[in-house]
Amino acid sequence: MNQKTSSCGWYHRLVALLHLKLRFALTSALATAIDYGLYVCLVYTLFSPVVSHVLSYSIAVGVNFVLQRRFIFSLQRKLSHAFVLAMGVSLGGLALGTALIWALTQHLFFNQYQYLTKLLVTTILFFYNFYMKRYAFEKRFL
Predict the structure, then answer these.
(1) What is the tens place of the pLDDT at every residue in 56-112?
(2) DSSP sequence for 59-97
(3) DSSP alpha helices (H): ranges in the chain?
(4) In which element (H, E) is residue 106 found?
(5) Is 40 exposed, middle or buried (0-12, 13-18, 19+ CB in 10 A)?
(6) How far are the Cα atoms of 54, 69, 76, 105 from residue 120, in angstroms, in the given order?
(7) What is the pTM of this model?
(8) Mutual orientation of helices 114-138 and 3-45 as an angle, nearest 10°?
């Protein structure tokens, strides 16, 4: 391997990782739209922020699993193992998101502007989910 070929290896890996994150972001957009839309509807009509988050996030998790398995990650495990790991990651995300929603709504601003609260929590959970689900599907973080 010559110097030029080996020095470009990191570049190609970086481009591949960015492409993977872009596809992850696009498929996550659909699940996020479901999560966010349901949350806003529920929190302003029926339930508390915590209950609304639990319901909307749980429904979006199922949609997200199907999309990620099909379009993002190359399965390196048995489907049943990947499903259990992905649901475990999702439960962690649910716990993290619920704790953040609860903590943020203790502040008047975030309690008053639930759509901003959910947007902030969703942004944090995007990064958590990407790296943890990549491990669940592909057995690697980076």
Answers:
(1) 999 998 888 888 778 776 667 777 777 787 788 889 999 999 999 999 999 999 999
(2) HHHHHHHHHHHHHTPPP-S-HHHHHHHHHHHHHHHHHHH
(3) 3-45, 49-71, 79-104, 108-112, 114-138
(4) none
(5) middle
(6) 16, 26, 32, 12
(7) 0.70
(8) 140
